[in-house]
Design a protein that fits this description.
The protein has an 8-stranded mixed β-sheet, with helices on both faces. Helices cover about 25% and strands about 20% of the residues. β8 and β9 form a beta hairpin. The chain is built from 9 helices and 20 strands. By secondary structure, the protein is α/β, with parallel strands linked by helices. The longest helix has 14 residues. It folds into 2 domains: about 200 residues, Rossmann fold (3-Layer(aba) Sandwich), CATH 3.40.50; about 120 residues, 3-Layer(aba) Sandwich (Rossmann fold).
Length: about 350
């Protein structure tokens, strides 16, 4: 007799799990024990679906590395007992959390599918029903008894993305996420069509959960007219270990002496400076233009086509697991979980 597929839904909080109180009209979390009543079509999937809820539930604006570690801990403890995991999460910081888990869950061989909604499940027009049902189907999908999607992903509005390649680009439309620099992993229409060449292949190694993160980083977003005082104040934050510099275009920045000298001094003091483009699409190409040659010369590290969300999570992960600056800089420029594409 074929064993029943087991899926664990982990509800962290967010819009999807809300219903409107009939008396007050205020949105409040519903009891996930009543999930089958809310979405009776789940029974047709013939899976064993269990749930685990954060207590207390959190708004995704409050998501931080402590909660990331808690989420990893749940998956680690439940890993052998389930075939796949669906994480319900607020959309605002979903890309950050999915990126973090892609690094923290090493040797992942089972699907961890993030989803959520723009409208609560308790509302008539909610996008949450389709998002949840399809996310569960994807988490359960196998071929030759092997998971089809053994990686951390986001499923939203008919598309499956690699989690660490996404960013939230729309706060109103149901199509909330995009993956500008990596192909969609699956399209869900009448059938779910998987882009198998873009999906991680299973490695069949034992899961290793790594919960060490270091948050001593900052983001320096460049803009025309940025002052020396602003740049200096960020680079002189106490205990700062790394800065993500969001530059222009293909990695360009002012070549003013004061700017270059401040960056050079920070690097000399041991601070890692990661050059990431403000453009959502495309890659940083250090040295392509004259305005980035000086950055290359002083030791700024190019981020290729990483998203800001992936860069934040990757830096926290690398800094939490190593104090060797050169080793970290090398790993920043190599894919760990498919988060970047190396270009010449």
């Amino acid at each position: 007799m074929e064993s029943q597929t087991k899926i664990l839904i982990i509800y962290t909080g967010g819009t999807i799990g809300m219903v409107k109180d009939a008396k007050t009209g205020v949105l409040k979390p519903f009891q996930f024990e009543n999930l089958m009543k809310m979405i009776p079509s789940l029974a047709m999937l013939n899976y064993q679906i269990d749930s685990h809820c954060f207590d207390p539930l959190i708004d995704s604006s409050n998501m931080d590395p402590v909660y990331w570690a808690g989420l990893v801990d749940i998956i680690e403890k439940k890993y052998e007992g389930y075939d796949g995991f669906v994480v319900l999460h607020g959309s605002d910081t979903m890309s950050y959390t999915a990126s973090a888990l892609s690094f923290m869950l090493q040797n992942l061989n089972k699907p961890v599918i993030f989803t959520g909604s723009q409208l609560p499940l308790g509302m008539v027009r909610s996008d949450g029903r389709e998002n949840l049902v399809t996310a569960i189907e994807i988490a359960a999908a196998t071929e030759d008894e092997t998971p089809l999607v053994p990686e951390v992903c986001i499923y939203f509005e008919n598309q499956l993305f690699r989690g660490n390649r996404t960013h939230k680009f729309n706060a109103e439309n149901f199509e909330a996420f995009r993956s500008p620099n990596y192909p969609v992993l699956a399209d869900a229409g009448v059938y779910i069509k998987y882009n198998r060449n873009a999906i991680h292949k299973p490695n069949f190694k034992k899961l290793k959960a790594n919960k060490k993160l270091d948050t001593n980083i900052a983001i320096l977003k460049l803009f025309p007219g940025i002052s020396e005082k602003v740049v200096s104040s960020i680079l002189h934050i106490p205990d700062l270990k790394a800065v993500i510099m969001e530059s222009y275009g293909a990695g360009n920045a002012p070549d003013s002496d004061w700017f270059v000298n401040l960056i050079a001094d920070a690097i000399e003091k041991g601070i890692i400076v990661l050059n990431l483009s403000q453009c959502q699409g495309g890659s940083v190409m250090m040295g392509k233009y004259e305005t980035s040659i000086k950055l290359l010369d002083i030791g700024v590290v190019g981020a290729y086509d990483m998203t800001t969300e992936a860069a934040v999570a990757k830096l926290m992960y690398l800094l939490g697991n190593s104090s060797d600056k050169r080793e970290i800089e090398k790993k920043l420029q190599k894919p760990i979980a498919g988060e970047l594409t190396i270009t010449n």
